[in-house]
UniProtKB/TrEMBL annotation, chains A, B, C, D:
Name by which UniProt lists this protein: Acyl-CoA dehydrogenase
Key word Oxidoreductase present: yes
Keywords noted in UniProt: FAD, Flavoprotein, Oxidoreductase
Organism encoding this protein: Nocardioides marmotae
Occurrences of domain Acyl-CoA dehydrogenase/oxidase C-terminal (ranges): 263-408
Any GO BP: fatty acid beta-oxidation using acyl-CoA dehydrogenase
Domain (Acyl-CoA oxidase/dehydrogenase middle): residue spans on this chain: 147-248
Signal peptide: none
Keyword check for Cell cycle: no
Subunit structure: Homodimer.
Similarity comment text for this entry: Belongs to the acyl-CoA dehydrogenase family.
Cellular compartments per GO CC: cytoplasm
Gene Ontology molecular functions: acyl-CoA dehydrogenase activity; flavin adenine dinucleotide binding
Length: 418, 418, 418, 418
């Protein structure tokens, strides 16, 4: 159980820390001001040039595509600018993801943003040479963005097998129909490619019925119906969309890894993706705790810093304990993934998917409370942080489903069939 | 300990229920659609005519100003349209407030909206004849709205005695300076009068230093700097404002109940106001629980209604228990206020101020979770409801301050000085 | 919703309070000392004479059998010494039960101790004239005690229909076989009669299969196998026993209300019984909170009373809120029982059965913590109190079963079949 | 951050696992039966021969004194039978301590029982050659036992500087007076030596006033007043005593590390001791979770294994997450101790001291609930386990004090003085 990053990863972590401190953090106030202005003009969905400038700087420093996994990165890390020319293990990448999680823009700037990272991993591991050339390379290059269209408005997303959208093979084409929502990233004008998940063969085994298909955004029949908010927040310019697919036809070669492979791919995609999400939330929780400490020490009431009133210090202690526990749990899941792959870390990945967003939600709520009314407003990053943590209790599977996985594995140790 | 409403109150409650079902609920989808459109046009701060139409209907049915307290309503209940011509006790009003709390617009429609109700109570109990004529009557008439400017951005609002804004008597005028925020209602064009709270005599006893002053919105030196959001929500067209006061001069006759009386007034104002807030949150929590039950029964996953999966039914039970406990606690506080006034209900009012928003936040969070991603979006009223509950853990005193009051009273029973 | 006791009940409550203060509390240290000595001598199962003396005094003051329910007490309240000669409603009895709950011996002293009260209610409501004469009257007289043998070691007690013990009618006899445990009271030498619950007709409807049978303790084939402890506590001299029944034969006339009626009777028995348990736990929690306040004010650390350290005052506030909420919830269940009987209060009784023991467990845990190591020892009544609260999360149906009832009723409002 | 044990430690862990499975577990039923019988005879304080037999077997296998810390073990590991002849790091020892924590007797059998381990560490690190010869060696040999007398009945133990017992230097003697309680181990007839902590110089700096003195149990003036229970449990034959010291005189050479050094020593003693306690509690929680899974799968109600009812599976998942988080947190504290000593792990040790006992208490409570009434009785090891976890929320500093340490360090990062 060794959670130490390699020397190269430790070096990259320090360089990311420096880059964030020198370039990203100083730019954030401007970014938020520009975004607010753009919103007021109704132009929030047009990406701000600031991000592209920062992306160029990150790439120049070799802090680019750091998410690329050691075992699959192959030639790509070298070709697309990751310093050192190879990918990182999950344990290596963890502290980097945590650092980027503190910032609203860092993941974008380092080309390490969900859902693109997950989509790139899918192509890396399961894509054909053509699929890699056409879509993976421009994504690694930061020229285009992508979306993953899986969740549907009409069915409970906790059970993916209930999905109703279809991807029917018709000769050398696939015909796609259905409606998806919470498709993150579709608001961005550079979002050129969707990975669509749909039902191909209703008669196959339960986990062999669905396929993943690459659908270029401009294919006829694809329509972005609207962009959804979470707690009033639209996450421009990426956004979360509701998308309809009406008799959309793409070549059968766009199916990733063949018909019926969607669940097999999802299994591989979601493990590291969930670890990344959780790592970033750890960073967010750390940021919230820092703000809470600072505010609590600065403001006074009844003649004392408010941090010294009532149970506030105990809450700070509980938050520290909760964050440190959660980080260790994430590192453990990362390490289990590293040493044995997704099948080795089923329980551990579900454990963090339950534990970390709940922890972050609670720590951020505490920070809000210490900030008073302002803590709920856009004056502080806490409302957005809370929303991110809360959303993650649903995205990539609700808490309840992941608790189910952990329980199934635990009871399996004692002979339970399921 | 008798929590039964009077026969007249029971009748009014049923009539409010019918009015909401017949007029308000059917109008709400239109209201939300109109508001969304107005927002898109940048005109969300212009009140929608729908509200005025519904106000007229409510008044016609005598369901108007029902918040008026029995012991202070005097002639006003009769003059301003409350059916039966007299005010209600807190116990009587409780189930009515709960019903209105389920709806985003019902409180406005019945002229029972915070902060106007609290401001009207202040004028009713402490206002001079001129103050009543000039400001209370148009408020009761629903012609104008009002704001209460107390919280300040620069100091911890948990300790009101740290307030830095000033209200200095200068001959027959008061000179007002300072900056306030979270002044609810100032976004509304009909908001014509502010009750300003500021420091008058720094050398007086700690709770005799501050005054409340009536400041007409259009007085020179009053400036609404901006409108604040909570979790991305602006609560248009009332809104929560940041307001600066620069050498604002009003007649000394605008001081309510004389210089140095602000805390005495606040004590009287906040008791019933907190009870009303809590009652409305009970309604909100009931609404959320209903939505959770319905959604949980409708949607299926793994071959079952999702309500039957994992711990969901236990969560429904816990929510029912939590709501019923909280309602009883609120009724108890209302009853204590009714039989002995604010001094008799200090602990009870603080108890509900802690217990109810926390309960509501949790029940609404559960309802969100059962709704999946949609539960966080504007497709459902849950995000707004959560924000309302969360805000109330800060507004009118943070949880921690109210726990402090409850503890002080409890320990006082065993001889503790404070 | 009127939770006020009748004037007679209010008077009895005050007289109970006075009796406890004058006679019972002063005797408790002696009682505990005598019991400890008896334990050391291995004679803890021999009742101490002190209790009989106090019983006589209670009876003399008319504070006897106060549990007798208004609607079923009939002649018995008058015949067996309850002052005023009639029974009390649940709302009337609530504050009395709360007072007795504070004391380890008061319920016994007032002849209001479980399980005898529940057993007496069964006989009162469902017993034949002979059964009343033979068993109810001596119980009301305080001459004998009784036990209720229902839970079995071999099956999950959460589902009573899985019970395996049998009560087979054989001509004019009933033949009883099986093993029961957690039969409270069987340790007491005066415990002369058991109400046994067993399977009579496996082919009947699920809730018509079982019968309740009166089994005198000295019937051949009845054997008390051992006495069980909860957290090391044996609750001498009543105790909780494991009892075997081997070919035990009693007259068929000993069946209460006829074969197959056990569940119908249990339904009626358990409602008020659960309310009484919860009322007493409220008293226990109040006692714990008082001890916590006193200890927290007396002891100092780091130069302050420990109650002023960290989050302790907030915990006191939370405990006060929790107790007051719980009491109101119990009063509400009592009132619902009073106005409409058990069928009217199904959810409410299950609500308190969940809420109150959990609340008490938590408040007592807090009191323990404030007492330091001593709080866990026999030097304070907290360990016994905690054990009582914890046990009640299982006795009379575990939390989970009661949450199930509340959920079923809640979801039933929205059309769910079960 | 490397939590992997050394190969030697991994081997020892497996050998401890085998020894427990082959020798200790099979002996436990007999041990508990013998103890129950001894209790019934009033002879529970006489150690059972079984333990001595098992000790001999453990020693034979080299599984003896495994607690000995690598950096201080010196010659002792080799001389007193630890296989391999050297001590273990905290990370190495962690999984061994976890295994022993599952058993009520394993720590004793392996000579790794508190408080002896802590006392031996004190002597190892701070003892003079004579002190080591006279007391450390027989302790390492398992011939005698020891006690640590620090907590006092008269003052809050959360603030050790309030201690009132005295250790006054008088020429070449120390005169000891005062009363201690919760002195673990004094019930055992082999307990021959006490480490006494008392006030030597009231005028010194706050943390330089107290001394630790070796007081042989048979010194005149030492009196064991009584043995205390926690939740009815006496932990025979070690026990927790209340001990009075009246004009007890021992040579000044019995002071450990010189007058005024008590806090410096305590600091060094308590770090690893707390880690050991927490490690053992992890084992206890694992044991409880296993029992919960097994019972939940075996028992049925309403036609299903009870583990599949309501929220039970979610509780199993939450328990697994909680245990794994807690174990990682303990390993982290152990690792910080290993790499930088106590000063490097102040926050981490306090973190686990808060997190682990609370976690264990909750997991064990869940296991109790799944066992029904039996879970609270002596039929299962859960009541004793719960008591152990609950006690640890007070022993070695209450939760609140440790939260205070964590908060102080956290706020110190932001410039807070304390």
């Amino acid at each position: 159980m060794d959670f130490s990053p390699s020397p190269r990863a430790a070096d990259l972590t320090e360089r990311v820390r420096a880059f964030l401190a020198e370039e990203v953090e100083p730019a954030e106030p401007q970014y938020h001001a520009d975004l607010a202005e753009a919103r007021a003009r109704g132009e929030a969905w047009i990406p701000l040039p600031l991000i592209e400038e920062l992306k160029a700087k990150a790439r120049e420093r070799g802090l680019w595509n750091l998410f690329l996994p050691k075992e699959h990165a192959g030639e790509y890390a070298a070709r697309f600018g990751t310093d050192g020319g190879e990918g990182l293990t999950n344990v290596d990448y963890a502290p980097i993801a945590e650092l980027t999680g503190r910032s609203a823009i860092a993941p974008l700037v380092l080309n390490c943003n969900a859902p693109d990272t997950g989509n790139m991993e899918v192509l890396l591991r399961y894509g054909s040479e053509e699929q890699k050339r056409d879509w993976l390379e421009p994504l690694l290059d930061g020229r285009i963005r992508s979306a993953f269209t899986m969740t549907e408005p009409g069915v409970a997303s906790s059970d993916a097998t209930t999905m109703e959208a279809t991807a029917v093979v018709d000769g050398d084409e696939v015909v796609i129909n259905g409606r998806k929502w919470w498709s993150t990233g579709v608001g961005h004008p550079d979002c050129k490619i969707f990975i669509f998940m749909g039902l191909t063969d209703p008669d196959a085994d339960r986990h062999r019925r669905h396929s993943m298909v690459l659908v270029p955004r401009d294919t006829p029949g694809v329509k972005i119906e609207r962009l959804l908010d979470t707690m009033g927040i639209y996450d421009e310019p990426l956004g979360h969309g509701e998308v309809s697919f009406t008799d959309v036809r793409v070549p059968a070669a766009n199916i990733i890894s063949g018909p019926g492979e969607a669940f097999a791919i999802a299994q591989g995609r979601l493990g590291p993706g969930r670890v990344h999400h959780c790592m970033r939330l750890i960073g967010l929780a750390e940021m919230a705790l820092e703000l809470a400490c600072k505010r609590g020490l600065e403001r006074t009431a009844f003649g004392k810093p408010i941090i010294n009133l009532g149970g506030n210090r105990e809450r700070i202690a509980d938050a520290r304990i909760a964050i440190d526990s959660a980080r260790l749990l994430v590192l453990n899941a990362a390490w289990k993934l590293d040493v044995g792959g997704p099948a080795n870390a089923l329980s551990e990945v579900s454990q963090i998917k339950v534990a970390v967003p709940n922890m972050a939600q609670q720590v951020i709520d505490l920070a809000m409370q210490i900030h008073g009314g302002g803590g709920l407003s856009s004056d502080f990053p806490l409302a957005a942080a809370w929303t991110a943590a809360r959303s993650l209790r649903l995205a990539d599977g609700p808490d309840e489903v992941h608790r189910g996985v952990v329980a199934r594995i635990e009871l399996g140790k004692h002979g339970a069939k399921r």
